Amino acid sequence: MKSVNPGPNGNGIVYIGSFNSNIVDSYFDQAAFVKNVPRSKDTNSLRFHNVTFNTNSSTCPPVVVFSQGLRVTNALFNGVDGPSLNDGLAVVSSDASGKLGILGSDSRVDSSDVAGGTNRMQVTASAFVTGGSNVNVFNGVSKSQFSGCRFSSSGRAFNDIHHCSISNCSFRGTGREAIYRSGSTGGAVSTITGCTFKDFGSNAGEPAIRFDSSQGHRVVVANNAFRSTNGSANDIVLENNARRIVVTGNWARDGIEATVGSATIGEPRFVAPKVVGNSTNPVGFSRATPVLPSGTGSANATANRNAQGAWVYHEGGSGVTINSFGTTTTLNTDPSPVFVPRAGEIWFESSAPSAWDWWWV
């Protein structure tokens, strides 16, 4: 099916009222508005397969979908000639005027989703392209899965994620971060794995991935590859006290910035992020060594408020005591070096060292 400039004034209106609808092998030129009301316990209530949505409108995204339970395969959402508004490339919302961006993913919509207005979505082998200036692909994605997709955006590909899985996707040419998470929606419990990021941050040298400060993100970023020539200082940025994040196994040309200011010491659920085993930014001795303790006992503990554990080489210290995730142990010997985990502490019960050096790994 091919539909060109459908609806009044070419704004495009397609209304689907049945449950479990399929749109296949179709092309929509200018925006298509699709409405499908979900039913409790239905499987995916709306499916797109081999569908293209194209627009050069400066006021409408390529598609606005009113739906819960959405599956997309082999689709193209092309807004390279528009829209110029920062309203997202595609919208899944109960209110088109809000232009919230796509929300939501899994294969079922249950009664709690319907009552709570939660949209769920699975997207596979699809492409998303935006034009204009600072136009995001998705604004606020919740409970969604993306696999094998391609993104090119003048803004962000994902402007906030929540309970999402993003795997084996390609991000090439984004004006800002490819993926940004504010954390304002609470813990994410999300994964970003096996993706490639190239030429991101063309607006002002933004990183490929950024996590907002002072939030518990619960995110794993693993086995991705990054390369940009747009002046990005870092490929991944974890802003101050962005907690509960594991970043490992990534090839990051410009490295990873993790600023940890006030990580909760000793508590496993609230500790600093873990940034280890990546291709660049080995810390080693490059970080400033903490000031020597002025006395003995836990009142003179030194905390490791960083995203890596550290080996501490000390001279003359005895009664070595380590607080590791809430478990405090005084060692029977006084080894040097001794390992202090991230968000852990070290102090000396008998005598403080006269000198020490810290090596972060």
Description:
The strands form 5 sheets. The chain has an 18-stranded parallel beta sheet that branches. The chain has 1 helix and 34 strands. The chain has one helix spanning 111-116, and strands at residues 2-4, 21-29, 32-35, 46-54, 63-66, 70-73, 76-79, 90-92, 121-124, 127-130, 138-142, 144-147, 150-153, 158-162, 165-167, 170-174, 179-181, 190-193, 196-200, 209-211, 216-222, 225-227, 236-238, 243-248, 251-252, 256-258, 274-276, 302-303, 310-315, 318-324, 327-330, 338-340, 345-351, 355-360.
Describe the secondary structure blueprint for this structure.
Layout: E1 2-4, E2 21-29, E3 32-35, E4 46-54, E5 63-66, E6 70-73, E7 76-79, E8 90-92, H1 111-116, E9 121-124, E10 127-130, E11 138-142, E12 144-147, E13 150-153, E14 158-162, E15 165-167, E16 170-174, E17 179-181, E18 190-193, E19 196-200, E20 209-211, E21 216-222, E22 225-227, E23 236-238, E24 243-248, E25 251-252, E26 256-258, E27 274-276, E28 302-303, E29 310-315, E30 318-324, E31 327-330, E32 338-340, E33 345-351, E34 355-360
Parallel strand pairs: 1-2, 2-4, 3-5, 4-6, 4-7, 5-8, 6-9, 7-10, 9-12, 10-13, 11-14, 12-15, 13-16, 14-17, 15-18, 16-19, 17-20, 18-21, 19-22, 20-23, 21-24, 22-25, 23-26, 24-27
Antiparallel strand pairs: 28-33, 29-32, 29-34, 30-31, 30-33
